[in-house]
Amino acid sequence: MEDSVVASPQARRLALPALASVNVSWRVLELALGATIFIVAFAVYNATLTPSLSYQSPDGNELATIPYQLGLAHQTGYPMYTWLGKLFTYIPVGDVAHRMNLMSATGAAAGSALLFAIALLVIRGGASARFVSWRGSATPVTSAASTSTEPAQRGLQVAAALFGALLFAFSTTLWSQAVIAEVYAPNIFMVSLTYVLLLLWARREEASASKTADGKSLALFGAFTLVFGMSLGTHLSNLSLAFGFLPFIALTNWRVVLQPKLIGVGALLFGLGLLQYLWLPYKAGDAPTLGFAEPNSLDGILRYTYHAFDQLKWAYPLSAVPDRIDLYLDLLRSNFYIAGMLVALLGAWLVVFRHPKAFFLFVPGYIAQMAFFLEYRATDLDVFFVTTHFIVAVFAAYGFYGLLSWGYEATRRLGLFGATPEPATDPRRRYATIGVAVALAGAIAVSAAMPAYSLASNWGHNDQSQNTGINDFYRNVFASLPANATLNGQGGVFGYDMFYYRYVYDWRPDVRIPATEQGARPGGPQGGPGGLGQQAGGFGANNGATTAASGAQYSVNSGGFGGGRVGVGGGFNQGAFGNTSTSWSIPVIASPVLSDDSAAGFTNRTLTLYETTNTAPTLFVSGVTPQNKVGKDFGGVTLAGYDVDTSNVEAGGTVHLKLYWQGAVTGGYQIYTRLGESKYFERHAIGFGNVARYVQLKGSLQSGSYLVEEYDLVILSSIDKGGQPLQVRVSNGVASPGEWFQIGTLKVSK
Amino acid sequence: MIQETTQIKAGSPVPRVALMAVAGLALAALMLLAGYSMVTGNDNGINGGFGAPPGGPGGAPRGGIPQGAQPQGQFGGPGQAPGQGVVPGQGQQPGQGGGVPNAQGGQQNFGVLPAPADIVGRVQAFNGKSLTLQTPQGMRAVQIDADTPIYRANGSLGTIADILQGRDVAVVSEIGQDRLLHAVAILILQ
Questions:
Q1: What is the rounded CA–CA span in Å between residue A365 and residue A358?
Q2: Which one of A204, A640, B57, B59 is CB 3.0 to 4.6 Å from A660, fit for a cystine?
Q3: B163 at the A interface (CB within 8 A)?
Q4: Rounded to whole angstroms, how far apart are CA atoms B13 and A251?
Q5: pLDDT tier, B97 (very low <50, low <70, confident <90, very high otherwise)
Q6: Helix/strand/coil for B24
Q7: Could you give the angle at the alpha carbon of B169 between the alpha carbons of A691 and A695, nearest 5°?
């Protein structure tokens, strides 16, 4: 009954009528709200989830594969992520990569729900909590130990915590990580769980009459240290949060240092969590494939963990710090907007004065993380700030609580919502109260709209539900390669878009993939775990083989990483793997995997299969007429026409495309193609990088000849059936490409 | 009773007012640092910190490419005006593009680059391996190895000796396994 809302006379007088009449357990209500936050956030993430692999993260495809293998991920190893991921691979939904994406969705949703709990714990803030009054006439309420909580105030606290949780859940960076396989979303779950346990321990300590830790206090403290130790296996940077944990523990009960039992249990369980890193030497044999030093010694483990990516750390001089902070503020604004940032700043100041202990819990860790990552020369910098965004969201919840409580007091003074108004005094004072109330109402309305605004404005960018280009590409590649072909590609972490199908599903075991042979990486199982449709059992040795061209050489050139660019070297296409200066890379299949080629390099990858031959292709033809005339001048080059082998295509299949170009075809043009209004498109250098070399070898071209680009364009399996426009656009290699131009229509069937 | 017990057992030896003072000073310092950075920091923009091609698919940087950087092709075609931006500095607005291949000749040839240049900037420092560029998006460090093709403004193949402090360059880069930016090809613009 202590947690029930009772319609007391005071409540009837002060609270909103609806709240005053509620008679449910707050604990149940709060648990239900926490569950609702999880369900809503998860539903949003699931609706925008990447179906399988993607290029949204440089490590994502590796991190989708390693847990299934129970292997060793790149530095810093991420053992806890690997083990948790293994559990998710057993979920019978989609393919293995999809299941790993689901783990991110689950982690981000759970982290948001736990932020709700953290915000409540911080707002209630133990014995020092005060209801925020605008005149400082604080009313002691909502102590964790308090049993006579006023319903309206408690309702405001819940509303504020809900605001913080949803603001965080729909912030763009977290969302972007919740729909792909990566460590950051599962990590935020571990971080939030760590904070919750520490705050629960503090609440217990403050409420306990015992001078030494009782059993529950000991259990909570032990759970906190264990989870904290375990969280280092989802991201080692969590260690910096200890800069806040330690002062908070001391400020909560400095006498813990006099309790060897508590210290001992904490240290023991923290060490138990750290033991996960024995996984590194145990799996050290897997490291060579990744191109990192093997963690098979103490020195190796340190290089794999503490010294991981040393070349990126502390990369900027002191003079660059303002630039970096400015950049961080931009990132913060992109996640919370100006309104959210201001509310968080208000919350930080309120915490300073109302609950300074909480300030020392969050801010030192925040500063440590921010300082480290501002000096970190990462190309995907934004994701490293998810944890600091989490802390900002907690402060935003506190700030929103301040706004709500001030607004509540204003309504009380004005006698609104059934409250007894203050005795009439100076009319000017009443007008001032009205003015303040209106201003607060505006601030509350703007703030309250932030989560919904984030949800609406971030949906399009973070929606990866149609991102099937990699799977569709490799399905066609493995179906079309001749028996015993060799498939070259990138090695290391960035090669896992290809390795996935070998390690997890063992597709086409007859096809040699040299990049998987660099180390002792174990092969994938025969068959596979299912989830890839009809090919779930893997391609047979000759399944899909179109010819018996034994030993044929192919390369997958997912441009953008590790020497994967085409056309390096005088415009020649020598960028494909396994090529020599005398061989040619002839495009075979290209897939629309790009969605924003102004984005960071790792998401700006193209995906093309080349056949490697010693015979020069027939790049230029004359005396032919394209089946479909276009005659579109793209500013320097003209698309004269095109051929397709069929106008009826199957989603997930390919269409054989011939594009006939004229004009300055040796320029640095980039050709873009797509089918339908999908945000995913294919891009390649004109002539797939072969033009300059061809011209050099063959001499001047016959007047009126066409440059012919011939390849299979992948039709995304996610595309809608029915007539879809086939579109082309061109960039001159320097400026942004022009508008899409429809050159025809293909009928898509499913 | 509970609060009394709390005060006896839990809590810190540091007075609450001292905690508030330290926390307030720390927060004020953070705000001052943020304010100073907003005033003096380079307006990098969201993409500025990622080594990304911020100007769009063509990699055209904010601020445009240097004036006079008309790319030329070998087979002619209608030329266009060069970009209006200046590298580095003034680039708050997108450049106008560098024109298209121009049979009439020009000083630059973006056509030799294998892919859109994602970094255009002025050489601040070069130690033979690491090239530091000042770009409208902030400082960029790009790694160069012996195999990195370097093109002179006229499109001929150059050497690392051509990379001099103060010169403007266009770089096609990619992320290496070491997570550093590596140059795939470099074009010296002037």
A1: 12
A2: A640
A3: no
A4: 7
A5: very low
A6: helix
A7: 15
Q: What separation in angstroms does the CA of A604 have from each of A392, A560, A562, B54? A: 30, 6, 13, 12
Write out pLDDT tens, residues A51-91: 999 999 989 999 999 999 999 999 999 999 999 999 999 99
Within 8 A by CB and 6+ apart from B190, the residues are B66, B68, B69, B107, B153, B167, B168
A706-714/A584-591 β-pairing = parallel
With vertex at residue A555, the alpha carbon angle to CA A594 and CA A622, rounded to the nearest 5 degrees, is 80
| Cα angle: A606, vertex A607, A613; to 5 degrees | 120
Using only C-alpha atoms, chain A has a radius of gyration, in whole angstroms, of 30
pTM value is: 0.85
Distance of CA A596 to the CA centre of its chain: 16
Say which DSSP state A155 is in. H
Q: Of the candidates B29, B66, B103, which has an alpha carbon nearest to the alpha carbon of residue B189?
A: B66
Closest CA relative to residue A599, chosen from B86, B184, B181, B48: B48
Q: Tell me the β-bridge partners of A609.
A: A556, A589
- Token pair belonging to A342: 């201001």
Is residue A54 within 8 A of residue A464, CB to CB? The reply is yes
Distance CA(A669)–CA(A635), nearest Å, equals 10
Query: Over the range A578-617, which residues count as b (16 or more CB within 10 Å of their CB) and which as e?
Result: bbeeebbbbbbbbbbbbbebbbbbbbbbbbbbbbbeeeeb
Q: What is the DSSP letter of B3?
A: H
Chain B residues near residue A291 by CB distance under 8 angstroms: 177
Dihedral-angle region of residue A418 (phi above 0 means left; psi in -120 to 50 means alpha; beta otherwise): left
Query: Rounded mean pLDDT of B82-102?
Result: 31
pLDDT, tens digit (0-9, with 9 covering 90-100), for A516-563:
885 434 334 444 576 665 443 445 433 333 333 457 999 997 543 333
Chain A residues within an 8 Å CB radius of B38 = 325-326, 329
A114-149 pLDDT, tens digit each: 999 999 999 998 444 444 444 444 444 334 434 444
Q: Which two tokens stand for residue A744?
A: 């025809």
Instruction: Name the residue in chain A with its Cα closest to that of B158.
Output: A570
Distance of CA A27 to the CA centre of its chain: 32
Q: What is the mean pLDDT of each run of 10 residues along chain A (750 residues)?
A: 42 48 77 98 98 94 96 95 98 97 98 98 67 42 44 91 98 98 98 98 85 87 98 98 96 88 96 97 77 83 92 89 92 96 97 94 97 89 96 98 93 77 73 89 94 97 96 97 93 91 96 78 49 49 40 76 34 44 86 77 79 89 92 94 96 97 86 94 89 80 88 97 96 80 96
A181 and A52 Cβ atoms separated by less than 8 Å = no
Tell whether A664 lies on the interface with B, counting CB pairs under 8 A.
yes
Measured from the Cβ of residue A71, the count of other Cβ atoms closer than 10 Å reads 20
Among B4, B8, B16, B37, the residue to mutate for chain A (most A Cβ within 10 A) = B37
Q: Could you tell me which of A514, A520, A507, A513 has the C-alpha nearest to residue A480? A: A507
